[in-house]
Design goal:
This protein is an alpha+beta fold and about 150 residues long. Helix content is about 40%, strand content about 15%. The chain has one domain: Transposase IS200-like (Alpha-Beta Plaits). The chain has five helices and four strands. Strand 2 and strand 3 form a beta hairpin. Helix 3 runs antiparallel to helix 4.
């Protein structure tokens, strides 16, 4: 019988190199860049029915802002979806948006006697990389309801 194989496991070959490879997503900075965030209602249905609904969404968003989780540049709450221009100084946009939308959906469902999903799929977030585009996004969000 021959000597046992002492080389690298072929399944592990190149693993060290692969660990150092950055994906495109990991090269995009996750902090300190604004994002234009939108979350549509299921089937484009209304997610805000009256002033109390708008106030609750703003209260929940304000809680994240006062905790330092979000920096809000501008927002517009349309009847069927919110538009937010926000930054997450400590990262974790997905976590904060999931918390915000889930908390609001629970409130809305309880208040309006309904159950099920309020928002369709995942929120949409567009990275705003330069100052000119930031200004355009802010203008768009401010003027969309007019």
């Amino acid at each position: 019988m021959g000597a046992p194989y002492r080389g690298k496991d072929p399944r592990q070959a190149g693993l060290e190199e692969r660990r150092n490879v950055q994906t495109v997503a990991s090269r995009i900075p996750r902090r300190s860049l604004p994002r234009h965030v939108m979350a549509r209602g299921v089937g484009r249905s209304r997610v805000f029915d009256d002033d109390k609904d708008y106030a609750e969404f703003l209260r929940l968003t304000g809680g994240l802002v006062s905790d330092g989780a979000l920096v809000s540049h501008s927002f517009c709450l349309m009847p069927t979806h919110p538009h937010l221009l926000v930054e997450t100084p400590y990262g974790g946009l997905g976590r904060w948006m999931q918390q915000l939308l889930a908390d609001y959906a629970r409130y809305y469902n309880r208040r309006h006697g309904r159950c099920g999903h309020l928002f369709q799929a995942r929120y949409k977030a567009i990275l705003v990389e330069d100052g000119e585009y930031l200004l355009e996004c802010s203008r768009y969000i401010h003027l969309i309801s007019i």
